[in-house]
Amino acid sequence: MKLYTKTICPKCMLMKFELNKAGFEGDYEIINIEQNEQAKNKLVEAGILSVPVLEINGRLIQDITEMKDAISRILV
């Protein structure tokens, strides 16, 4: 699981909190697209222009509600 973020991003901080609260702390990779041009290009090529983005099994999820739902499904 990967979380694509930026340095200053309140929604990214919220998703980090949600992942940690769900017990995934340390079990996901945080990728700052401001420091990783390859990751940024991957998102742009997928038509994604903002963060946070959660990647689970190769699926890129941009919507916060969808991210929370995906996290909940993993816990079941």
Strand neighbour order, sheet with most strands: 2-1-3-4
Q: What ranges have pLDDT less than 50 throughout 5 or more consecutive residues?
A: none
Whole-number total of structural domains: 1
**Which class in CATH terms?**
Alpha Beta
Number of strands: 4
Shape estimate: globular
Determine the CATH superfamily: Glutaredoxin
User: Residue share in helices?
Assistant: 40-55%
- Our count of helices gives 3
CATH fold node name: Glutaredoxin
Helix and strand sequence = EHEHEEH
User: How far is the first residue's CA from the last residue's CA?
Assistant: 16 Å
Strand-residue proportion: 15-25%
Strand pairing plus helix content: what structural class?
A: alpha+beta
- Our Rg estimate from Cα atoms comes to 12 Å
Major β-sheet profile: 4 strands, mixed
CATH architecture label: 3-Layer(aba) Sandwich
Give the overall average pLDDT. Answer: 95
Protein name: Glutaredoxin
Organism: Lysinibacillus telephonicus
Pfam families: Glutaredoxin
Domain Glutaredoxin: 2-61
